[in-house]
Write a structure and sequence with these properties.
Blueprint (H helix, E strand, L loop, with lengths): L13 H16 L3 H9 L2 H6 L11 H10 L2
Length: 72
């Protein structure tokens, strides 16, 4: 069984990362889910997260959220 993460299967990890980030935005910024999702998907952190070579998928939700907010 191949358990390597690569660009072809990285998409399997992204929904859970995005869900965590969205929930953090909901509670921290008091915005609705649609705005949270728009904010995440249009962010620099998401474009880097979906690029396997950056290895950002290694980061947990708190680290990703901090990284996302550091770039605002």
């Amino acid at each position: 069984m191949n358990l390597d993460i690569n660009q072809n299967n990285l998409y399997l990890l992204l929904p859970s990362k995005v869900a965590w980030l969205a929930n953090m935005l909901l509670s921290d910024k008091k915005i609705d889910m649609i705005e949270a999702m728009k904010s995440i998907y249009s962010s620099d952190i998401y474009s880097r997260l979906e690029d396997e070579s950056t290895k950002l998928w290694h980061l947990g939700p708190v680290a990703l959220y901090e990284e996302m907010n550091a770039n605002e």
